[in-house]
Amino acid sequence: MKNRFAWLFVLAWLLLLAGCAGIATQPTTPTILSETEQPEKGAIIAPVPKAIMSDNRAVIALLDRAQTDNESGQREAAGASLERALRIEPRNPWLWLELARVRLDQGLYAQAITLARKSNSFAGHQSRVQSENWQVIGNARVAQGDTAGAEQAFKLAAELAQQAKTKAESDRDSGFNSP
Amino acid sequence: MKSPFSISNRLSFNFRLSGKTVRLAALLLLLGLSVYILYLDVTIREAFDGRKFALPARVYGRALEVYPGLKLTREQFVGEFKSIGYHESPQPDEAATYKLTLDGVEFTTRDFVFGDGPQPMQHLSIAFADGKVSSLQVRGRDDVDLPLLRLEPPLIGGIYPGHNEDRELVRIDQVPKPLIDALIATEDRKFYTHWGIDPRGIARALYKTVTGQRIEGGSTLTQQLVKNFFLTSERTLTRKGTEALMALLLEMHYSKDEILETYLNEIFLGQDASRAIHGFGLASYFYFDRPLERLEPQQIATLVGMVKGPTAYDPRKHPELALNRRNVVLQIMVSQNVITQGQFVSIRQKPLGVVERAPAGTSPYPAFLQFVHRQLERDYREEDLRSEGLRIFTTLDPLVQYQAEKALASRLAGIEKTRKLAANTLEGAVVVSSTQNGEIKAMVGGRDARYAGYNRAIDARRPIGSLAKPIVYLTALEDPQRYTLITPLDDSPLVWSQPGTTDWKPQNYDHQFHETVQLRTALAHSYNVSTARLGIALGVERILGKLPMFGIDQQPPPFASSMLGAFGLSPVEVAQLYQTFADGGFRTPLRGIRAIVTAQGKPLQRYPLNVEPVAPPAPVYLLTAALQGVVREGTAQSMNNWLPAEMNAAGKTGTTDDLRDSWFAGYTGDSVAVVWVGRDDNKPIGLTGASGAMTIWGEMMKNIQPEPLEPVMPEEIEMVNVDPAKGVRYDEECKSGVLLPFIKGSAPAETSPCGASSADELKTNDNGGAKADIRPEIKQDSGQKSWLQRLFE
Predict the structure, then answer these.
(1) Which stretches of B112-244 are assigned E, i.e. beta strand?
(2) Nearest chain B Cα distance for residue A6, angstroms
(3) Per-window interface: A 51-110 vs B, CB < 8 A
(4) Residue A20 domain-assigned?
(5) Are B173 and B262 contained in the same domain?
(6) Are residues B25 and B137 both part of a single domain?
(7) Based on the domain organization, do B14 and B72 belong to the same domain?
(8) What is the CATH number of the domain that holds A84?
(9) B343 — contact with chain A (CB < 8 Å)?
(10) DSSP secondary structure letter of residue B55
(11) Does B483 fall in a domain?
């Protein structure tokens, strides 16, 4: 009797093992929301010495980090570093300008224009940063298809750049003349 | 009644059946059993694998950014350490330890994964001088200056899976060996050798149950784990049988270490208000405020002892029982050579050493957490929030939050006392955001800030009264040809008929009419009649139609009374409205979240700064100047009890009919804040905006130490020296006039020789009893200082 039924136990046992091994349970995998960020080319960071942008070394460190991230196409990360810098110096026009540039590179043209304007609202009489802001506005307008508006912006940018240059030269001259 | 023979009869009948039928029946039975086992197998494996991922979303406050020059005291810095679980240590080289030095702190940070990447542990030192950070250095052979340190953010709450389970996941290699040894010694000595069940234990339990002594466990750790998965207190033999089968199946699929690791993370170890404490990792923080690896033997014994009955042996609720149980575990640890006899003798004398703390529930900041949760619900599925272990980085600043909570609670109690109101009848709410980026720094939903119930900051929509007036004035100032800060307004009696509503006869708060008042004065003193006339002249629809632009979705009734705030907004909506005024006409949606990363540290989503220009900067600049007048010389002038004049804060008081609501909304250089005070049953409270909400605002701001308000002057603005009453301008050098901002081309054209100012004449009027419409102005004295400085000397 025992021998006659042995095959049944073997069969059952095999079935059990096969069944257990065969059915893989699905762990609940996290739903990942993909980043919309698209890597882009042509990172632009102005060759303005950072010492002009801020005298706070923490801010400079964050600007450096943003620049590195932007150059490697990590626009969102660059934006995050600039926002950190802005928490330290919320009224620094250079930081708003950099953020405007990052948004321009991201293709967020309306934001780029707004941020450049916001930078201008903090710029006072600093024609260099104003010029750069109008440059950003011009580029954003080109991308938006507003050619006339872009031309106007570039013209302003050029005028302000000239002012900045003249001022820089007169500063340097007075620097040479001073004892 | 059946005969005792019937069974044997049937058996003999069965055996008489042919061998084929028997084999078929047996096969079917075994197949059925296989299917059942398969079902159990799938169930238990799903539970096991699923549990590994059931992690609550962790919500962090803002990370403190520290750099030389930052306004921060050592006391505040160490306070931040406490909120992120650092411990004082004579040798602060381990992660999350610190030591006070002569003028600063030496400390070591933790590894931490931020929204933008990992930040490794660092050995640092910091020094303070004059209320500021004077140096920040990396400790090493040669100390190196560090420009910036981002501390780990404080954990401010979680969004928990079903049953509000919370846990701190630990890997088995993070668990101290004595804990594992003690657990196995106490709960399941044959853990490493059995197959999931302990037949002798079961036999013993079965014997006791069958003989009716009592229903007993005899469970292995594996069985306990299975039981914990299905959280049922049912103790039947069937249940036990199923558990035993599942335990066997678990052991077939997973290694002992995997099972033990899951057990260590899964076991229920206490209750914190609505939050269930699961696993040794979290229990270690919950009871001893330290990571597992830093537990001392007697603390390990306390936790292991709690496995038998987390409620019965809760060291906070039943310290004596817990202590006895702990010592029993220590005794077992000696007998199993986990600790020596000598250790046992010394440590059994030690107290439980549980940290005292009020139950935090699911968050110490329920109002803010609710705000964050609502924002998250728009973008994520609730089940993902509760199980994927998302890490959510928010904007809450615990230092600001603390001041907001404290000011609200203490001032409301103070007001009730001095005004002889019944205690705990006043309620309130506070919202504080950053001027330039719209980040919410603090949110208080009621005077009991820990109470996770009615959140007045986002859910209480109360009439805003005069807080609506700036919209009227901004609309006027956008037309510089008609309106400037000194334009005379008519404050004589008004009856306004509008279809659909009764005749409207606005009154001033002082029940007087003021004939002709300057525009800025009408706002400073919050005159209703002149504001109503101004609004009607501009167009009610035009004014109310601006609300969506300022981020307010509520559409008030289209009546003139709406211009004076006869419609409800929540404090956070008011904060959104004033954000645009504070930020020069740029609207930034208020945000509570900065970034979200997965449990593995992968960035998932950022909530970047978004800015929209909605009002031209020059009129907003004028509005801010007028709102500064409210604080300097208008309805909020008693703010000088809290803030120095140099702060130049701008703000507006709001009081509603029968003194039911008391509001104050205002801003400094870096903060926008709104305070509401009232009663939940909407009964009158006898407080104006100035006597209620404003005092809370002032008290809070004084302690936050905000930046002064110094808006950058737009290019379209010029400062002109004028005589407001006569409507003429003086030479720049003339000291008789008042220096006021105008949009270029809108200042009085007529010049007047420098002479006696009308302000002097008005000074005499001031003593005449009736409230002067135009307060004495500050005269020009020196060309050296800025107009602002001159204005406030």
Answers:
(1) 112-114, 117-119, 123-129, 132-138, 144-145, 149-150, 155-159, 165-167
(2) 11
(3) 56-58, 60-62, 76-77, 79-81, 83-84, 86-88, 90-91, 99
(4) no
(5) yes
(6) no
(7) no
(8) 1.25.40.10
(9) no
(10) B
(11) no
The tens digit of pLDDT for each residue in B629-653 reads: 999 999 999 999 999 999 999 999 9
> Which pLDDT score, from 0 to 100, does residue B519 have?
97
Q: Which residues contact B756 (CB under 8 A, 6 or more apart)?
A: B736
Which chain A residues contact residue B380 at CB under 8 A? 33
Structure tokens at B618: 């020059």
Q: Does A111 sit within 8 Å of B434, measured CB to CB?
A: no
- Residue A126 belongs to what domain range? 50-169
- A105 contact residues in B (CB cutoff 8 A): none
Do A25 and B41 meet the contact criterion of CB atoms below 8 Å apart? no
Domain count, chain A: 1
pLDDT (tens digit, 9 = 90+) per residue, A25-66? 333 333 333 333 333 333 344 467 888 899 999 999 999 999
How many domains does chain B fold into? 4
Q: Which two tokens stand for residue B111?
A: 């590894």
A140 in any annotated domain: yes
Flag whether residue B384 sits within 8 Å of chain A, measured between CB atoms. yes
- Order across the sheet with B593-597: list the strands: B155-159, B57-60, B391-394, B593-597, B603-606
Residue B105 is part of which domain span?
Answer: 63-152
Q: Which of A11, A16, A58 sits opposite B37 (nearest CB)?
A: A16
Interface contact A6, partner B, CB < 8 A:
no
Q: Which residues of A touch B23 (CB under 8 A)?
A: 5, 8
CA separation, residue B288 to residues B154, B167, B473 (Å)? 18, 15, 57
Secondary structure E strands in B341-473: 391-394, 427-434, 440-444, 462-463
The residue among B303, B328, B347 that closes a domain is: B347
Q: Enter the pTM of the model.
A: 0.78
pLDDT at A61: 95
Instruction: Specify the residue for token string 């006895």.
Output: B324
Does residue A12 form part of some domain?
Answer: no
User: Torsion angle of alpha carbons B334, B340, B342, B345, nearest 10°?
Assistant: -30
Chain A neighbors of B27, CB-CB under 8 A: 8, 11
- Using a CB–CB cutoff of 8 Å, tell me whether B137 touches chain A: no
Rg, chain B, Cα only: 35
Residue in chain A lying closest to B595 (CA): A80
Q: Cα angle at A100 between A70 and A74, to 5 degrees?
A: 20
Residue A27 counted as domain residue = no
Predicted ipTM of the assembly: 0.77
| Residue of B452, B456, B404 lying closest to B428 (CA atoms) | B456
CB B697 within 8 A of CB B664: yes
Whether residues B185 and B333 share a domain: the answer is yes
Interval B520-526 mean pLDDT: 97
